[in-house]
Amino acid sequence: MLLEQPTKTDKRENLRKGVYVLPNLITAGSLFAGFYVIIASTDGNFVRAAWFIFLSAILDGLDGKVARLTGTTSKFGVEMDSLADVVAFGVAPGVLMYAWALKPFGKLGWLAAFLYVVCGALRLARFNVQVDTVESKRFVGLPIPAAACIVATCVLLFFELGGTGTIKKVSVVFLVFLLAFLMVSKIKYFSLKDPDLFKRQPFRLLVGAIMAMILIVAKPEVMLFVIGMVYLVSGPLEYLYRWRRGKKEELL
User: Fold this and answer.
1) Residue-number span of the structural domain to which 98 is assigned
2) Residues with Cβ within 8 Å of residue 54, at least 6 apart in sequence
3) DSSP 3-state of 139
4) Alpha carbon distance, N-terminus to C-terminus of the chain
5) Which segments of the chain does DSSP mark as H helices, in order?
6) CA dihedral 93, 141, 27, 72 (to 10 degrees)
7) b/e burial code for range 212-239 (CB count within 10 A of at least 16 → b)
8) Each residue of 29-60: pLDDT tens digit?
9) Total domains in the fold of the chain
10) How does pLDDT run across 152-203, given as a tens digit for each residue?
11) pTM for the whole thing?
C-alpha cells in the first residue's frame, strides 16, 4: 500500500503548530551578532566587529547542540541556521574586510569581498546537500564559520600590533582568495562536531586544553590568530601527507 505524500497544505498546517523557540532564538542571536558586525564595520569599529564574529560563531555552535540535547531539531531550524550563516559568516566578514582593507582597491576590492561571500554560500549549499553522506569527523572544505573567525583574528592581531602600515592591503587580498578557494575545495578539515570528542579522553588532553585556555586568556588576539592559522593550514598539510603516502604506495 502506497503512503500518500504530504501536500503543501499539510506542510503549512505543520508549521502552524509552532516552532521550537530556544534553538531558533539562539540562531537569531547569531544572526543579530552577524548583522551588528556589518553595522560596526561601516562605522569603522573593526575590533568590535571582529569580536562579534566570535560571538556569532559561539551562538552558531550552541543552537544545534541545544536542539539535539532537547530533542527540538526541525527542518525549519536547519533552514534558518543556514540563512543566518550566510549573513553572519559570509556577508558580515565580507563587509568587514572591504571596509577595513579592501576599499582602496575600488572595484577589485568589493569584487574580492563578494568572491568570499559567494564561495561561502556555495560551501553552505554543498554542506546542506552532503550532510547525510559525509563522515561526521571531517568537513569537506574549510567551514565558513572558521573562515569568518580567521578574518576576525587577522583584524584583532593587526590592531594588537599597533594598527598601522599598508601591508594589510595586499595580505588581505591574498587571504580572501585563499579562504574562498579552501571553502569550495575538497580538502578535508577536522570537525569539532566529532562525537568522539565528548567521550573519555586521555588525562594529558585535559591538561593541554587548560594550558591553551590560559594562553588564550593571557593574550587572546595573538593566540586566536595562531589557532586560526594552525587550523587553516591543517587541511592542506593533511591532504599533502595523504597524497604523498598514496604515491609511495603506488610505487611499492
Assistant:
1) 19-191+200-251
2) 149, 152, 224
3) strand
4) 56
5) 8-16, 21-42, 46-70, 75-85, 92-97, 107-130, 144-160, 167-184, 203-218, 220-251
6) 180
7) eeeeeeeeebbbbbebbeebbeebeeee
8) 999 999 999 999 999 999 999 999 999 999 99
9) 1
10) 999 999 988 876 666 667 888 899 999 999 999 999 998 866 555 556 667 7
11) 0.85
Task: Give the Cα separation of 171 and 154 in Å (integer).
Answer: 10
Query: What does the buried/exposed string (b/e) look like for 124-156 if buried means 16 or more CB atoms within 10 Å of the residue's CB?
Result: bebbeeeeeeeeeeebbbbbbbbbbbbbbbbbb
Residue 10 in domain:
no
The neighbour count for residue 37, using CB atoms within 10 Å, is 32
The upper half-sphere exposure of residue 189, i.e. CA atoms within 13 Å in the direction of its Cβ, equals 24
* Distance (Å, whole) CA 222 – CA 100: 19
CATH number at residue 214: 1.20.120.1760
Output the CA–CA distances (angstroms, integers) from residue 113 to 123, 221, 231, in the order listed. 15, 23, 22
